[in-house]
Amino acid sequence: MIELASVIGDLREELDRAVGAAEGEALRFELGPIELELSVALERSAQAQAKVRFLVVDSGADVGLGKTSTQRISLTLKPTLAGSHRPVAVSGNAEPNER
């Protein structure tokens, strides 16, 4: 399992690479809303300052016993570039190691 914040951070890094790859390309794609549907485990700590963590569950992974329950959540993210109101464009080119 991985924390939801890490999943979103990894997605941000991938999108940032795609935006960078679009520089100077003739063919680009406008980046619209991103919809994620995830299975998450809600884990509540038993400490005095109880905190709930959202952990993304791998497909086929068993969630351990304890104070963990699994839920499905849907998120819609609308990507923007800091300081810009222009549409975000990404390249259709794959990195050499992604082909």
Automatic annotation (TrEMBL):
Q: What broad taxonomic lineage does this protein's source fall under?
A: Bacteria, Bacillati, Actinomycetota, Actinomycetes, Kitasatosporales
InterPro entries listed in its UniProt record: Trypco2 (IPR045608)
In its UniProt entry, the species of origin is given as Streptomyces mobaraensis (strain ATCC 29032 / DSM 40847 / JCM 4168 / NBRC 13819 / NCIMB 11159 / IPCR 16-22)
Q: Where is the Trypsin-co-occurring domain?
A: 2-79
- Give the protein's recorded name: Trypsin-co-occurring domain-containing protein
